[in-house]
Amino acid sequence: MSLGYKFRDFFLPRKNILKEVGIKPGFHVLDYGCGPEGYIIPTAELVGKLGKIYALDIHPLAIQMVQNIASKKQLTNVKTICSDCKTGLPDNSVDVVLLYDILHDLSDPNRILEELHRVLKPNGILSLSDHHMKENEILSKVTNRGLFRLSRKGKKTYSFLKEK
After folding, report:
1. Quick one: pLDDT band at residue 8, thresholds 50, 70, 90?
2. C-alpha dihedral over 100, 105, 106, 107, to 10 degrees?
3. Residue 49 above 90 pLDDT?
4. In the 8-state DSSP scheme, what is residue 163?
5. Mutual orientation of helices 40-47 and 60-72 as an angle, nearest 10°?
6. Are 98 and 130 in contact, with CB atoms under 8 Å apart?
7. Rounded distance, CA 18 to CA 149, Å?
8. Gap between the terminal Cα atoms of the chain
9. Which residues constitute the domain of residue 33?
């Protein structure tokens, strides 16, 4: 699996995908469903030392791998969260949420989207990509409850802004 990630990252660097989002130094980013590593290092480069990365996953092994990477790379601004929904973060505390290749797999997407809406700052960005779903499925699932509105469609991601 690790070899597959290296192959993927060679042809489609994670940093190129993150550039579509507009992450800036000092941002607080929640990587929801972070998996074993994917976006942690390039996100850390973009947010810099003043930024913060929250890496959340339901799988303890994924969390352990992220912790190992953060330790090895001396990324002191990475905090891991092992959870199936609740982040434990304060209201309006996150600039960007990354929700990549997981929406299709969520057992209760509405509950997750409510939690992401809660933690995002006003005008916070939900950056979403899910190659398992068609565009109309993504748009309807994310916007149907009035929590988010489509802001921009990039080459690889959809950017939604927090409503209300």
Report:
1. very low
2. 180
3. yes
4. P
5. 50
6. no
7. 19
8. 40
9. 2-162
- How far apart CA 85 and CA 106 sit, in angstroms, is 10
Residues 6+ apart with CB under 8 A from 61: 36
Residue 50 has phi, psi (to 5 degrees) of -85, -15
Residue 20 is which amino acid?
Answer: E
This prediction's pTM: 0.91
Nearest-CA neighbor of 46 among 102, 96, 120? Answer: 96
- The token pair at 114 is 């409510």
Residue-averaged pLDDT of the chain: 91
Domain count, the chain: 1
CATH of the domain at 99: 3.40.50.150
- Looking up tokens 């802004």, which residue turns up? 161
DSSP assigned state of 51: S
Give the pLDDT band of residue 38 (cuts 50, 70, 90): confident
Mean pLDDT value of segment 112-135: 96
Greatest alpha-carbon pair distance for the chain in Å reads 43
